[in-house]
Amino acid sequence: MKNILLLLLICSVSYSQTFRISRPVKDNIPVNASYLYGEPRYQDPQNGHRGIDIAARWDSVYSATDGLVYFVGYNPNDTINGYEAGGAGNYIVIKSRWMNKDIYIYYMHLQKPLIAQNDSVKAGNKIAISGNTGNSTGAHLHFEIRMNYAGFNYARTRRNPELWIVMSGKGAIYGKVPNAPNTTRVDISPDPKPRPPYTTYGYSLTYNFADAYIGTDDIYGENYAIGDVKPGTYTITALNGAYRRVVTVHAGEVVNADPVTYVNENLNNLSFSLEQNYPNPFNPYTYIVFSLKEGANVKLKVYDVLGKEVDVLAEGYFNPGKQEFLFDGSQLSSGIYFYRLESDKFSVSKKMVILK
Fold first, then answer.
1. Does position 100 have pLDDT exceeding 50, yes or no?
2. Which of 111, 218, 226, 315 could serve as 129's disulfide partner, Cβ 3.0–4.6 Å?
3. What does the alpha-carbon distance between residue 306 and residue 321 come to, in Å, rounded to a whole number?
């Protein structure tokens, strides 16, 4: 029985993560679930929706993070100082940090900003009243996350906010439908949404970069996501049942619908390989191995689930071949951690579990 419980604990820990930032509106205000991240734009079907629309109608907007007010302005046109395109109306950009990287949080179509450029804010501070300014068909908040760059013209910089924020007591699901054409329908049963306040959700769509600015999560690598999911067990299907997953969601969890695999990258096709750590789970030592097909400057770092850097295992130039590093987790608590290998040409992450 003890071994069975241990296995259940390992499986539960391996498949779920937690949310990263605060919800920018009152907890009972839903996302517009008929126009989600990556879905084709109403007036521009060749490009995707680069954030989410939250049904905050003339209501309070709060900062989702601690940070610095990077920009406050009005944009009725295509561009303004390289910061935005597409008629954001009154909008605010707050610069924050995640996993030792800059993130830029956009709050668009505001009726009235309540803060000024260069102000410091804390998560939960009231920063604006939502509205209907700019290119908008009704009062709402367009909420957008950009990784590394604030400007509009940077490829793959957007991230799906539904994997970053959540209603209290709810979770989220992500996954990757292999070889799915863009906007492939992803169904989930039973109904995952709290109703009320949700009234519009029917299914999700994959996002496979028809829009050059749409990106996937740095850790999850998904091509679909379902946010604000009620705790429960669900069946997810796509491609006429060729893709089928059963997943259980608990409150506060971001859950991977796909089975974890430990297949290493093929060095015949890639310039690098990052192997699964061994042993895994571990206590307190584990080995992390990467290989390079050609010499490169790389960094190998370890992060906790909140994106905080906890160790640097390698940083500098490495010759072609295999490199092995011993990671000591004796000073860390049980739980999920991520190790990340990156250079100027590639970036890949894997997760590992400390079980004490």
1. yes
2. 111
3. 32
